[in-house]
Amino acid sequence: MKKYFLKGLDCPACAIKIENGLKTALSDETISINFTYKTVTLKSEQYKDAKHIIKKLDPDVELIDLSKKEVDIDDSVNTKFEFTKILIALMLFTISLFYKSKLSAYPLFEYTAFLTPYFIIGYPVILKAAKNIKNKQIFDENFLILIATIGAIAIKELPEAVAVMLFYNVGEYLQNLAVGRSRKSIKNLLNLKPETVNIIKNDTYITVTPEEVKIGDIILVKPGEKIPLDGVVVEGSSFVNTSALTGEFVPKRVKAGEDILSGMINESGLLKIKVTKEYKDSTIAKILELVEEASSRKSKTEQFITKFARYYTPFVVFTALFIAFIPPIILPNQTYANWIYRALILLVISCPCALVISIPLSYFSGIGKSAKNGILVKGSNYLEALTDTEVVAFDKTGTLTKGVFKINRIVTKNGASEDEILKYAAYAEINSNHPVAEVIVKSFGQPIDKSKIESFEEIKGYGLKAVVNGKTILVGNDGLMHMKGIPHDDCDVEHSVVYVAVDGKFLGYILIDDEIKEESLQVVNKLKQVGVNKVIMLTGDNFNAAKKIADKLNIDEFYAGLLPQDKVDKLKEIKDKLSEKQRVVFAGDGINDAPVIALSDIGIAMGGVGSDAAIEAADIVIMDDNPLAIPKAIKIAKHTKKIAKENIIFSLSVKGIFIILGIFGVATMWEAVFADVGVALLAILNSLRIFTYKT
């Protein structure tokens, strides 16, 4: 899928019309439009057909390939010109109203006086409606406003006709300003990308854009500047602010030889950094891409509004036709002019703009708010699904615990010494990247001659097998010993146990400790506060070590000694006990737990900073390793859905009231257009409240 720019897209109803048209014409339900960014996501081979379809659906919208650098995507509205046009029309309209009683004696002058501001303010609407009619595209807001105002002119309600056209345009102007501000707010919220980068070449500094920097280039980052690209510090030391990535301000010291990620802010020292990734592959590029693309995965509420808008406007138009012509026929002493006027009120109030812009904007704001807190949500559907979370299941190691291991003690058997056990274990573990392997090798503390290692095999879920100097070494869990038929002690201890055997002989075991994260002590209580019914822990560790952690954290249920496939089976069992609406969240490291993350309703990868695998595996990525981000994400999701529901109820209620008032002849066209514009603006402003929500 590829992203294209929609130049000239200026109304949410048009976005829905184009999206539905593309889906139908190209038979592809994956096509999605992001009105906030004015982009459409579709397959590259669909580009030519899509360009033609869009031009037919809306002649003023142009599909632009963003990969072509020479294209012009400047789509800013000339707000000064629009404001001046509105002001002139308003002045002329006010003058015409003031002299209306005198002008009524001279119809030609009256029509000229009122139609002049009408055409000044309304000609773009008239032209667009005419183009759409030519392309057989009706039932859009331009067509409705044109029909409503022409109808008003036909029944000699000139002030109403001008008022509807004028205030509709005022509403569009204010709406564009509000959407522009919201778009700017979201971009500022995720303002991670620096505009320029200082490259060091031949002892001089060259200023370029981040996209121009190549792997291996040395860049200079001064105090107060953002780190523009991922790399390794080659000179200097400093404290960096990671809040833009993780949502929490925790100063981190970096020095020569250490990795550093784009998006961090250099707080103190001067840093020279060797670039290891191009901008398009950098951490901030991935974050910004994830947030922007999240809108393509729409929530059920957004999908409902899209379908609703497809039928709502035609329904109101046909209802208006019925109201205009049937009552005068069947009711005594009724005039067509009176009922046509009532029908025109329905046309004015029928535009679903308040819904089709505020609902996606609510979810997009929720995704932006989450990202600011170090929580990357890959779609509105996942954000909405979080609100129905019934069970949260955690992996233990590295999720609830720090994953920073230390050896508690070594227990020897069959005449082996502690040094001997540690040496064999270190030789077997040297080629593994597991955290337990790292602590064993580090504790051994001696150089390892890798030439002595003849073979190495990782037995997934059990441990390792290595042949060293002709000896077969097995290092792993209790299951590995049973698999290989090696008699051994059954350890009933509150530690992680690493068994060691050589040439079929059991030598003993190493007891490993892991430290619980401080945040984990609060996570169960916080999850219960946001409505989670049950918290579960799934771990491959032994029963006693798992029970020790579960008891300390007040976890409802735990399951120990699980292989990766066992975790999948257990999660299936948990899901089968829930209703169709209830959701299971699983949080793990995003790499080792990929199968169970994929099976869960919402998979969360912890510690996603710099981990491509974690970002790829999960539906939600927590950029640091703080489990408290999960209840925070649920709170943001619930607040977002609450605001979306408020907008739906408020918009439909006001529109419903004015439809009833219009039918019974109580409301005027003036009031109807004010209501329509007001509802849209209030719904947009309500959506933006998500940014101020305290988590």
From TrEMBL:
GO terms of molecular function: ATP binding; ATP hydrolysis activity; cadmium ion transmembrane transporter activity; metal ion binding; P-type zinc transporter activity
Entry-linked PROSITE patterns: ATPASE_E1_E2 (PS00154), HMA_1 (PS01047), HMA_2 (PS50846)
EC number: 7.2.2.12
GO CC terms, sorted: plasma membrane
Keywords: ATP-binding, Cell membrane, Hydrolase, Membrane, Metal-binding, Nucleotide-binding, Phosphoprotein, Translocase, Transmembrane, Transmembrane helix
Segments crossing the lipid bilayer: 83-99, 105-126, 311-331, 343-364, 648-667, 673-691
Highest rank taxon of the organism: Bacteria
Pfam families linked: E1-E2_ATPase, Hydrolase
Entry membrane topology: Multi-pass membrane protein
Subcellular location: Cell membrane
Catalytic activity entry: Zn(2+)(in) + ATP + H2O = Zn(2+)(out) + ADP + phosphate + H(+)
Principal cellular location given in the protein's record: membrane
HMA domain location: 1-62
Gene3D superfamilies: Calcium-transporting ATPase, cytoplasmic domain N (3.40.1110.10), Calcium-transporting ATPase, cytoplasmic transduction domain A (2.70.150.10), HAD superfamily/HAD-like (3.40.50.1000)
NCBIfam families: ATPase-IB2_Cd (TIGR01512), ATPase-IB_hvy (TIGR01525), ATPase_P-type (TIGR01494)
Family: Belongs to the cation transport ATPase (P-type) (TC 3.A.3) family. Type IB subfamily.
Protein name stated in the entry: P-type Zn(2+) transporter
Organism of this sequence: Deferribacter autotrophicus
Recorded name of the encoding gene: cadA
